[in-house]
Amino acid sequence: MSQTNKNLRIAVYPGSFDPVTMGHMDIIQRAARQFDVLIVAVLNNSSKNPLFTMEERKELLQQATKDLPNVEVDSFNDLLVNYMVQKKAHVIVKGVRSVTDFEYEMQMASINHKLNSEVETIFMMTNPKYSYLSSSVVKEIARFQGEVVDLVLPEVEEALRQKFTSNR
Q1: pTM exceeding 0.90
Q2: Can you tell me the mean pLDDT for 42-51?
Q3: Residues 96-120: what's their mean pLDDT?
Q4: Catalytic residue among 57, 87, 94, 135
């Protein structure tokens, strides 16, 4: 990304993306239309035990976003607001599926704003056809060889199949 234009509208879409789902892709595609640069930032959530390594998640996201020229895939292990400063980004993009998601994300947005008042959070409502979808649900279905073809991209489906075949 060239930093020659200081007026670039840079946003960060953070998440664990373990794995990336069609719900995530919906938010990525829509947010990419709103900003000059959208950084999809993979983080390690200390409260979760990821199936995929950080590098595997980044690789799956890079494959999934290869046709979106203004989307970058990165990772971080710091406070999100610190990462935002490092990337010269001012907007956090969060997908919201439900009232429960909104309550949690509102709390996080408030904390982030307290830590850095220049950072704004925008909420994008998930497409209703993905409102039930989560990475946890996808992993549970895949663990028992259920059909995930409409829930994830083909490369993610294959990666899930490989993970659960090798774990048997």
Answers
A1: yes
A2: 84
A3: 94
A4: 135
